[in-house]
From TrEMBL:
Its EC number is 3.1.-.-. It is an enzyme of class 3 (hydrolase). This is Ligase-associated DNA damage response exonuclease. The keyword Ligase applies. Keywords: Exonuclease, Hydrolase, Ligase, Nuclease. The keyword Hydrolase applies. One of its GO terms (molecular function) is ligase activity. InterPro entries: MBL, RibonucZ/Hydroxyglut_hydro, Xnuc_lig_assoc.
Amino acid sequence: MRPEALLHPTPAGLFCPIGRFYVDPVRPVERALITHGHSDHARSGHGHVLATRQTLDIMRIRYGEDFCNSEQAAEFGEKIDVNGVRVSFHPAGHVLGSAQIAIERDGLRIVVSGDYKRGVDPTCAPFVPVACDIFITEATFGLPVFHHPDPKEEVGKLFTSIEQFPERSHLVGAYALGKAQRVIRLIRDCGYDKPIFIHGALAKLCDYYVSQGIDLGEIRPATVEKSNPEAFKGAVIVGPPSAFQERWARRFNEPMICFASGWMMVRQRAKQGGVELPLVISDHCDWPELLDTINEIKPAEVWVTHGREEALVRWCELQGIPARPLHLVGYEDEGD
Ligand SMILES: [Zn+2]
């Protein structure tokens, strides 16, 4: 079978014509398989959704009870028949519940990795390499310039700043799903045991992570109105980046604006966003991790979904691995 007969790109996303399903469709479809809960991959309004239990829970938290008509939870490794196509979900190491999806028929196996990373992250199951004929990879940080540092060293920069500026409230921007909880967990693992304050937009997802056994230590709401702003002197406050443009952020004591993102590698991005303390913490592979993963899996062919496709396609070709960009649109890396 030609791989394209099993899976090919369409304007709505990757489509399996035999199984009559889409993977991470960007518009409402009858049957969707979802890799993870970031809003660019998991959208509401599909007929039937097949995803991990945690991704389904996260979609319900974000979109409400009626986020789809019907749902089915996939266990990691479980083989599920969808209209004659065998599919299975495998950990992607990106955020809680995130999965790669293996799609098989007549001896051909395609793995859609969704978003993934290889670095240590105690807030989700680690990436598992799955042997396959076609490996479909993202390339968010698919340029040789991207090397993500040790995230604990980045948290060390935050601690140094708190020591240097004990009067200032340290506002850490982090995306609501995955990054916020990972940053809080990292801060704990680096020995910080004071309460950490969070913006209201993070509350439900933090509660969900805790319910799934991820210990975040003492979390308190960062509600200025009800308490003395003095209470936030030297405190660590985590909020979604969008909240930093609001009046909310200006209520704190000389806020030190920090932002945890892989994009903080790019000095210009930090500057434009008014970020004083950039923390390079990413939930995506950097360039060496992308190459290591492809070397480890040794697929017959690589397809690249989104990000900086050209450099990775070129590198694959130089290794003798046929590769092509899929030019999928609609994936804006909510959780970089
Ligand atoms: Zn993502």
